[in-house]
Amino acid sequence: MLFNYLKIGCRNLLKNKGFSAINITGLAIGMASAILIFLWIYDEVTYEQFHEKKDRIYEAWNLASFSGELHAWNTTPKVLAAAIQKDLPEVETTTRAAWPQRIQFAVGEKKINASGQTVDSTFLQVFSFPLLKGDPVTALMDPLGVVVTEDLGRSLFGSTDVLGKTVRIDNRKEKKITGVAATPPANSRFQFEYLLPWADLRTDGDDDAYWGNNSVRNYVLLKANASPASANAKMKVLKPRYDKEDPNWQMFLYPMSRWRLYSSFESGKETGGIIVYVRIFATIAILILLIACINFMNLSTARSEKRAKEVGIRKVAGALRGHLVGQFLGESVMIAFIAGLLAVLIVVLSLPGFNRLAEKTMRLPFGEPAFWLLLLGTIVLTGVVAGSYPAFYLSSFRPVSVLKGTFRKINALITPRKLLVITQFSVAIMLILSTIVIRKQLQYAQERQTGYDKAGLTYMFMTGDMDKNYLLIRQELLQSGAAASVTKTSSPLTQNWSDTWGIFWDGKSPDDKTDFDRFSADENLAVTAGLTMVMGRDFDLSKYPTDSTAMLLNESALKTMGFKDPLGRIVKDGDMEFHIVGVFKDFILGSPYYPTKPMVVEGAKRWFNVIHVKLNNKNSVAASLKKMEAICKKYNPQFPFEYHFTDEEYDKKFANEQRIATLSAYFAALTIFISCLGLFGLAAYMTATRVKEIGVRKVLGASVSSITSLLTKDFLKLIGISFLIGAPIAWYCMHHWLQSYPYRTAIEWWLFALTGLLTAAIAIATVGYNAIKAALANPVKSLRSE
Amino acid sequence: MIKITDLEKYYRTEEVETVALNKLSIEVKEGEFVAVMGPSGCGKSTLLNILGLLDDPDAGSFLFNGIEVAKFNERKRADLRKHNIGFVFQSFNLIDELTVFENVELPLIYTGVKAAERKKIVEEVLDKMVIMHRRNHYPQQLSGGQQQRVAVARAVVNNPKLILADEPTGNLDSSNGNEVMQLLTDLNEQGTTIVMVTHSEHDARYSHRIIRMLDGQTVMENIMV
Amino acid sequence: MIKLEHISKWVTNGGARVFLLKDVNLQIAEGEFVSIMGPSGSGKSTLLNVIGMLDDANEGKYEFLHEQVHLMKEKQRSQLYKQYIGFVFQAYHLIDELTVYENIETPLLYHDTKSAERKALVGDMLDRFQIVGKKDLFPSQLSGGQQQLVGIARALISKPKLLLADEPTGNLNSKQGEEIMELFKKLNEEDGVTIVQVTHSEKNAAYGHRIINLLDGRIEHPH
User: Fold this and answer.
1) Do C174 and B171 touch (CB under 8 A)?
2) How many contacts (CB atoms, under 8 Å) link A and B?
3) What is the C-alpha separation between A536 and A558, in angstroms, rounded?
4) Cβ(A62)–Cβ(A251) under 8 Å?
């Protein structure tokens, strides 16, 4: 019996190749999308789930109000850990982690830059990063020790047997490897290649007990039965007790389970975070799968006219309803199975691209039996869900009416189908419109004038001896013809590293809490960056040695300060005094979506991290870079030559929007494809049920074109309704989305027109095939069976 | 009006070829009322489809009003059909979604008659068929006899020269059947040529002449008195 | 074998009852060969479907092999039907996706016949109808007469006591039709199969032992 079912199922698939292909690809694409999305969700919800003590781990957060607004953030003072240990009896231990850093490891001539963190000795006891070699309790106690990952060890020594070996760090200190850790799992916030002991920080003089320096992460491990609530009650009053400067700040402990998914705070309140995306994506995945199933049902039922005869005959031959339900369910499970295999293939092929898009390293867990069980379960469920309607519907035919061809009165079905098509197309129209708006906004921001000249502008972070040898490096760069201009700055021109509301000037109102971007440069900033000076002059130390305490303002800063004649005026930043020598046109330092903030550029007396080099456009970029490398090697031999192009870095500011745009384009394409399947199914169904009517009309003299338009018109109505639903929703969503970008594009009427036309064209193409086929059919055939 | 000579039609499947019409020759004069009889499968429906320009013959000649139409393409056939031929089917073939009025109006739309004109013509025909009071009903709301009257109304609304009827009483009981036959006779008396396929000797007696077919050929002709 | 008492069947159309069968009383004994005649629309096929349990009447009693069919549930009825009745149609109604062999085999699948036995039974039937050579062909590759032979073979495979035929020669030419009728006669005489056929043809009707004439859903009794 089963064999007979499979056989007829296969023959049916092969006989209707086009139909089967549409059905199977539709289902496969639906399933593949669902699998990809669930992989992403799985990756997100398993973040930090591998820590054995995950239920007891917390992170300390600040909660304080500035200019009337409550802020919550998770960098806290180094001194906090000791205070927590002292005041919170609920705490078993604490551990701190400094900001991740890239440092150089050297073994003999081999030099490798690796990123990692400086952490407390308790780090490996709180978090579950197993040591392959070494003792987790003592590994981070030795001030001269370092823990490296297996991979780093192998890169340095060519083997993993590296315990006790010595490495040279940043060309200044020798460290002994006290532990070899496994490479941390990708779904953890801790992505280290090395761990340095806190004692190292102390040796370098970078440890402090200042409550105002919020620069590290403080983690807390509660005792097994401790109450988080009572611990938090104590956290609330902890800072005011120790810190007399800012007695209004509070602190709280934030549980590990919420770090990844929830840690988005607004006005001091948790507002969701990634969990929102997890929920949205889960809904989308289920919807896609469901819609694919319903389309499958639609297409199958549309063909029921053809299968009806078979049902009638089988019933006459003695089949009970159960037999037929079994047969049709079996067929749909078989199709789902083929679709499932195809889906896995699609996932395998598209996973690298998806990983790039999502910036993850997900893979299909082929080795896990649970994965296969889940896949099989999904396939069977999809098959049963998708096949249930046609199965029960077809098997309910009364044989007499089927064989006589008088069973066609199933118009009631059309309404839910229409609803489905309207829903699908509303979503499709929404996504098309959203994609267009997102792209338009992206383009709008990308075309915004940056205010400086990115062409040929490069920068290097100062490492090792570069700071010491800066003047020599600059001189040689200019002399060799590699550089047209060189300037030392506090941060790259694409990044805002410092801002302050502690800028003072004569006549500043006491209520004025304006936050200034703070930047510093030695000289020739306007030339190197291509800034436009509107008043005064650039820094020039050779002509004006006092320029080391000079200041440049941007136009916004000038407006804020309200000086009519700014040149020569004194501006104070904390204890330091600067005199204004020039004003330049605003340039984008931070987000290209925001208006430029007031900005001060302080002179050579400030600190510097970056050398900006404007390449000489008389020489080729490659030649100039080669010269740059030679010069850097000469004056900073212990460090590899690393440089960045400003324009490339600037483009990275759009990565997030680019990703949203790509993602929405994919979703739009997918929805359109699936919607078209639904429409195709409905069209096939409707034309099938109207075969008699079409035949009659043709006999009465209707032309092919009049019948085609008759059939197409109905569907265009559905698309019209979808547009009326989808377009306002899209407008609302996009309007809302654009609000988060102060520098934004407008949603214009032609976007709607374009979307409407595009959708209508797609719909006509989909329906047209069925309509023309029906219109061309010989009416004798449709009327003969009567 | 109709003259077919040595007409042939086959139905082919992969392996076998079934002969539906086998060198059939028939002539129907203007104003005649002809009944075609024969067992199922003798080719009478095929003949009717070819006469109605719905299907084309594989060989032979078909003169319609003196014009050779056997090799006409679909477009030409459709054009000739909508102006000259009306159809009445066993199962009525009314469109369920349209009212009585709209069903009857349909052929006029396809021949491009103006709306005001259409209304006048349709009402006239509905009156004649005594179905005017049902003009806004849907086919499902009518009895079989009424549905067939609507179908006949639709067939004659264009004032066709020829009416082709395929077992017009097949789905009706005998009294409704007689009514429809009377309707066809009246039309014939007003000058419309009628070719009717039937199984019923009783219905056939309404005609002037019975053509009896077997295996795709005419086997006998009876002239009625 | 078959006993119909006051059987009526109707549909409601435009608010009025249209009778397909009206007060039909009919008895058919085992081993009979009965032809049902009447004009189109007289209720012949409906009567055949009611006898064949494919359709039920709105009113009246139906006894089949001393079982009260009109009181049965759908499931019991299909059990009874499955065991005793075979059907032959004017349009053959073969499954296009199955071969000749598989088409004939289908009813056995629903009788839960073992695979080896099915093979033997289908083999016998192919032999008997001399269509062994065609067993792997699909219906579309056969002529109408051959298709109807397969249809009859399929109806007979489950060894029914009653064979119901709805215009079995309707789509065949006269020679093919004659062959089928000869076959029916032989089945009735040699195998004792009770046969009820619906036909338009006087000639075919004459193969039966008696003819039942229907008009407007009633049995017309010869005057």
Assistant:
1) no
2) 46
3) 12
4) yes
